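Summary for the steering committee. The consortium agreed at its last meeting that each partner would contribute one worked example illustrating the joint modelling workflow. Our contribution is presented below. We chose a case with several input lines so that the handling of multiple components could be demonstrated. No manual editing was applied between input and output; the record is shown as generated.
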Amino acid sequence: MLGVLKAIQTTVKAALRKPVTVQYPTEKKTLPHRSRGLPVLLWDFDINEPFCTGCQVCARYCPVDCMTVTMKDNPNFAAGKSKRKKIVDKFYIDYARCMRCDICVEVCNFDAIVMNNTWQGVELSRYDRQDLVMDLPALLRQSKTGELETPFREPMGVAHSGWAPRMDEEEAAAAAEAASLEKHHGTSPDKPSLSAPTPDPTAEAPPESKASAEQGTPEAAEGLEKEGGEG
Amino acid sequence: MVHEAPTAAPAEPIEPGPVARLFQSALRGLALEIGQSPIDEVVSVRREDFARVMETAKNDERLALDYLRCLSGVDWLTDLETVYHLHSFKHGHSIAIKVRCPVSDAHIPSVSHLWETANWHERETQELFGLVFDGHPDPRPLLTEEGLGYYIMRKSHPLADIEEWQEDYLKTIEEAKAQMAAATGVAAPVDEKALKIQMAQQKAAIMKKARDDARAKGLSPEDEKAAVQEAIKKFEEEHAAGQAAAPTAPAKSVDERAAKIQLAQQKAALITKTRNEARARGVSPEEERQIVAEALKKFSEEQEQAAAAPQAAPAQAAAAPATPAAPMDRAAKIQLAQQKAALITKTRNEARARGVSPEEERQIVAEALKKFSEEQK
Amino acid sequence: MAIETRPPHESDLETIDINVNVGPQHPATHGVFRMVLTIDGELVVDVDPVIGYMHRGNEKLPENCDYRQVIGYHDRTDYLAQFNTEHCYVEAVERLAGIKPPERAEYIRVVLAEMNRIASHLMFFGAFGTDIGLFGTSFMYAFRDRETIQDFFEEITGERMMYNYFRPGGVAWDLPDNFRQRCSQVLDSVERGVEQLDGLMMENEVVLARCRGLSPVTVEDGINWGLSGPMLRATGLKHDIRRAEPYSIYDRFQFDIPTGKQGDVYDRLVVRLEEMHQSAWIVRQALETMPEGPIMAEGLKRVLRVPAGEVYMRVESPRGEYGVYLVSQGSDKPWRHKVRGASFSNLSALRAMSVGNFVSDVIIILGSIDIVLCEVDR
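What follows is the complete predicted structure of the assembly.
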């Protein structure tokens, strides 16, 4: 019997304290600096181009193969503005498949990719799973507009010391070029076991973006969404 | 995916540890291969000796390995191996015991009579590796109720290649386009998703065309909207007609499951009927039960007779809807629908063979259906 | 006037055993777990647990991943004790590859794993309270404190559930600067919460009436059925892998191994509650002695290739013995990667423990096993 009274006492005490919850959609907790949302790319404001060179190392190390990257010659390099010989051409991340393991951030030689630590990195509800496939502009948007104020970049420095020794810029550029050659001339022994996606550089945009680019009318988009939503 | 062949372990003699020495003294005369892992000592035994080794491991006073920690199967391509990690709470020592068997003869004596916990471990390994544990009291598959039919943890069962989505989608769309270009006659089965995307694209094109037409005609925005909507509606109708015109799957002969369901339904109906009749006569509950049981017995006898004559069963089933005395039950309805579907397919194909227009084709089908339902009545 | 008022006795009635299907979608089964109960009246005659609804090939997938990519899959086996599972896996790889992680990394691992044990046990108390009919109260209490631990983990690793933070050779990145102070703060608030839970549950008449003496398990049976962790300690066997076969740096810390007396459901509760205090004690000791320094072993190659060999690494996870059997062929991916889930073996004893009890008690027994279905099915 005494036990019941003790339990009631505990309950009454708890009723008198402040609530610990937050009314979520109207009121949001501040995310910690290290918060790991889904990965986004960073924008190099000095040269006005992405940091990413399209070297595909993230795509090769991705455990779930959610990335597809292609590279192209950098026009800014030809114009003498940039040090990057190659630059990312197309970059797709399937957010529906990503498991936010942070490995892509660790292996990146150019500090070009980070985990999103804003609320937009986690609030990603969509009507269609296909809408979660992000293309290059979508991945760069937050960094470009300055919404991604302070990305957490520390892990790159530390983790590189052990798992993936950080390369200097020239070495990294050489490695990137080697990676691009690699897909035409077999695989290097260091290549991880997973069948890395080596997409054809001539591959087109995914169907939905292609379709909406072709018929940029609101009705067309509506029709697409409707059809996709049913599937 | 090709797996590299396992490299042979270096065959240097390893000094047996204390537990392995205990094993050697407890099992004199048996060929024990002693190994060492970073934590435990490893003893490999032949399959013939395995049952005796395990018995000794559990019951010998010096060993007293009373706890089976883990049981894992390993696929070595030519051989299948089972590894037993044992622990003794009495003496605080652990050991791993390994036994191998060829893939063609994947049998290993069960140890679930020694350690109760081996029961589930063995069931799981049996399901995932196709190893048979002889003497297992309950050798059902563990993870799936009916078993998979293949052994997913074997190296011969690779992961499905991870599809590369962009290329895949592009390919499917191109294929669909090619099929549309060549598309006359029977459409081959196409990826539904690609079809949907394609449909959406077509729709978008039609909308655009309709709007451009309307604009060219100088219509007001409202009229323009209406025109566009009309165009969409027309397109959808056409599409629906096309879908209906696509050959549906041929009416399957009643499969086993459906037959079972039908049988159960018939039985239930019979029970209800008999019971109601019995109640109407005001019999006692015992008698009522008896009557129902008799009716059921009679029914099942009839069923057996029907099953004995395999040709008769479908005929009987086919005849069922032709006797409309009783209110049509669900099974009969399904059957009727299947017959109808078959009729539609047949008529449509005939019509197509004659090369009529879609409208005519639809009419012909409708007529055939009408005729069929009249016949049914 | 004599009126016959004898109520019909059970033996007068003709009864048959009936099958009752519980789950797979049932709040009392803690996930997608099904059991087919054969009951005679209210008495359970047979239990047939049906698992496998959550099988994702968590042993097969790592055989096609390199050693770093596997860590993420370990978070997804026991999703309530992710640090403990990661700890087991990275320790297995390190033992096989002969990597010695730096001191600081070991301390970080122990602190986080013990905090995770507290979080996991809190989850148990919350869920168990709903099982025995305390409804939301205990759940809310426990989750309030578990939430603080999760927030704390999020500040360190960035994730709330799937941390992917330990690496063979160390941890992914260093702790934040205010770690020590934050950790003690969280520990204080959690220990207050544990005290509250203690007051709410342990002397509560509902808990006492329903748990005491329910399905007692002897030591011999427990060993034979393959029980481990709190389930085995509740039977009275003083066995903890952290003490019996010390891994990492557990041999440096003092802690008690709480045991029960008769192995009934109440003893399992007592053991778990006491373990939370012990874990907090370990964390406090580790915080005091945690050194500064590197967090990743030196001299690792870009791609980790583990020499050929095998190891069965086991750790004391909140649910019991979590083991990883790793066979390497010298390549950059494991040849065989077997996970011994603690709840897998514990759950296999469900039938033996629950036959002869009432249906409502079977739910309690199942709850007291503290299963995580992702670890059972893998």
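Chain C has a mean pLDDT of 85. Chain C has 14 helices and ten strands.
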